[in-house]
Amino acid sequence: MIGKETTAGRTTKFAFLGLWLLFTAFPLFWIAITSVKAPGDVFAYPIAYWPETFSLENYRGLFDKADFGVYLANSLVVSTVAAATATVISMLSGYVLARFEFRSKSAVLMAALVTQMIPAFIALGPLYLLMTDLSLVDNRLGLALVYIAMCIPFCTVMLRGFFANVPEALEEAAMIDGLTRLGALFRVLLPVMRPGIVAAFIFNFVNCWNELFLSVTLMNSDRNKTVPTALNGFISSFNIDWGSMSAAAVLTILPTMVLFAFASRHIVAGLTAGAVKG
Amino acid sequence: MHATAPTEPVAGRTGRAGATPARPGGPPPGRRREFTARRGLVITAFLAPAAVFVAIFTYYPVVAGSQMAFRNWKLTDLTDTSWVGLGNFRDVFADPAWGTVLANTVVWVVGSIVPQLVIGFALALWLRRRFRLRGLYQALVFFPWAVSGFLIGILFRWLFNSEFGAVNDLLQKAGLIDAPIPWLASPGTAMVAVVIANVWYGVTFFAIMILAALQSIPDELYEAAALDGAGKVRTLFQIVIPYIRTTLVLTVLLRVIWTFNFPDLIFGMTGGGPDDQTHIVTTWMIEITQQGDYGRASAIGLLVVGGLALFAVFFLMATRDRREVRP
Question: CA of B3, closest CA in chain A: separation in Å?
Answer without folding.
Answer: 7
